[in-house]
Amino acid sequence: MVKILIADKLAQEGIDLLESIDGIKPVVKTGMSEDELCECISEYDGIIVRSATKVTARVLECADKLRGVARAGVGVDNIDIPAATNNGVLVMNTPGGNTIAAAEQTMTLMLALSRNTVPACNSLKAGAWDRKKYMGNQLYQKTLGVIGLGRIGMAVVKMSTGFDMKVLGYDPIAVPNEAKELGVQVVDDLDNIFKEADYISVHVPRNEHTTDMIAKDQFEMMKPTARVVNCARGGIINENDLYDALEAGKIAGAALDVFEQEPPENKRFQDIDNCLVTPHLGASAAEAQVQVAVEAAQILADALTGGEIKNA
Length: 312
Ligand code: NAD
Ligand code: MLT
Description:
The chain is of the alpha/beta class and about 300 residues long. The chain is built from twelve helices and twelve strands.
């Protein structure tokens, strides 16, 4: 019997799929600490995680039978890939399953930031009727800078064409042909985006090149009307420098779906009206969760039962 541990909350459709396969036994045990995971992981051939469970080198050392880790989502930054490789454990993800959800969350945040939706709602609920204070801006014909022209970045580009935005794009690794077809002005120098854009959205993985990609120097270059959005990974926008830029009124606003530490210990952004914060909800659309769950279950089942080895 191939035993698969489902260590984070997974849509039922993924669990049902595993249960329907002869010879596979899924076991759901979520919210475990590293110690608890180390205690039980040796029983399992495979594990499915989202972002909460950290598959650390220590967990992998305890995982005598483990042959595969499937991430129901994109980022594999919660999995120690070098340690997995050393232990002969395959790491897979479901890169396309939550693309639209994350892009829609990005557009939601850009729109809500521009129209002061959250502070206006809070104010009305608190008994006020203040139409003047919450005057906003249109996205129409504004300049959007998209950093990272991969799946989510390109989905944001497509959605922004509906608002007739001018798009500047930056991706030093791969620019899809579609970017130019959609009218994206691809820039070689990232500073052009910081200097010209009204909205800046990051869609890159977090690594040594992208950590603090937007920090004090970049905020200095921005227009006072600029709004920045991070629906990718905490730390790509430096949180201390963002706080300072917002406090000093250097930029018009920011929206963070992701944080350097999750949940964030420091609650300072909650007190700034023109900073929207959401608890890592980019992929939290029901349709996306079903898709990543089913894809993760399928690729892991295939890999562990001698089928094809692939990402979704
Ligand atoms: P992707 O791999 O399709 O795209 C990433 C793009 O970034 C690639 O085109 C790559 O060439 C580019 N890139 C890499 N380094 C770069 C750099 N230094 N400068 C500019 N571009 C660079 O990934 P994706 O599916 O579009 O996901 C993007 C990010 O969003 C990831 O960090 C992912 O983990 C995150 N994400 C967050 C949520 C959420 O819930 N908030 C949901 C899904 C994905
Ligand atoms: C991802 O990388 O897929 C996202 O952060 C979403 C998630 O963690 O579910």
